[in-house]
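Quick question, first post here. What does this chain look like in 3D?
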Amino acid sequence: MSNTGITIYGCEQDESALFKEISPRFSVTPTITDAAVSEDNVGLALGNRCISVSHKANITKPIIIELSRTGVKYISTRSIGLNHIDLQIAESMGISVGNVAYSPDSVADYTLMLMLMAIRNAKSIIRRADIHDFSLDNARRKELRDMTVGVIGTGHIGKAVIVRLQGFGCRILAYDHCPNISADYLPLDELLSQSDIVTLHTPLNYGTYHLLDYQRIKLMKDGAFVINTGRGSLIDTEALIQALQIGKLGGAALDVLEGEEGLFYFDCRGKPIDNQLLLRLQQLPNVLITPHTAYYTKQSLSDTVEKTIINCLNYERKNKI
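> Answer (accepted):
Ran it through. C-alpha cells below.
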C-alpha cells in the first residue's frame, strides 16, 4: 500500500513532532512547515491533494486559487471553527473543507475557570496581592449556585460546559438554533434578559457576527457577566466596552477578541499595540483577557493531529481517482 501525502502548514514544534510520530501508523507521508500557507509556498503541496492549515492563518481567495492550481482538493483545518477560510471561494474552486472536533474538555474547563474568576473579581484581587495590598473588596460577591447561566450554543463544547455547571447547582439556560440536548432552551432575547452570566459557544458565521450587539447587550441584566471562549467577533466589542464603562455589565472574561490576529500567539513586549479595543479593555478592572489559549492542552493536540490525518485519509478514500 502506497503512502498518502499531506502537506501541513503553520505547524508548531510540538505539532510537528506528533505528526511525525503518528503518520507512519496511518501510512501517511507528511510534508511539514512552520510557515502559514501563502501564495508563495503553495508549491509545498505539489503532488498532495490534501493539506492541513492552522486556525491562526486566514485562507483567502488568492491563496485558495493558487492551491487549486497546485492540485489541492481538500483543506483540513486544525480547529473547530471555519471562519478563517473563504468557504464560498473554496467551493467554487472545487476544494472541500473539513474541521476537527477535538475533546471539548479543554475549552469547557477553561470557560468555567474564567467564569469563576470573573464573578469573584479575580483580576483586581490578584493585582492588589501582587503589590502586597491584601485588603478585601468592598463588595461581597455571589456564589455560582445562586446565579443563572445562559449558554449560547450547545454543540460539543457548550454541552460540556453545561455538564460542568450542573455540579455547581446553578440555574442553566440554553440557546441554539437547533436544540440538540436535554436543556432549558429559551429564545435568545429571553435568555439574555434572565441570565447573570452569558457564555458564548456558537460558531462564527454570517448569522452570528456581532451576535451580542448594542441592542442585545441592552437586554441583559444589570451587572451581568460575559464569557467568550468562542470567537471574538461574536461580540460587538465597542458595544461591550461602553456597557462595561457605564456599569451596565458587571464584567467580562475574554479568551478571544476582535482583531486578535497578529497579536495573540506573539510576544509583543516592547512593541506598540495598535488594537485600541484591546488596550481599552485592559484598562478596565473587571475585564480578563487571555490570548486564545482555552484549547491549548496535550489532549486537544493529540486529538487534532490524529483527526487531521483521518480527515485527509477519508477524503482520499471517498475520492479515488
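Residues 42 and 187 are 45 Å apart (CA to CA).
The first helix runs from residue 13 to 22.
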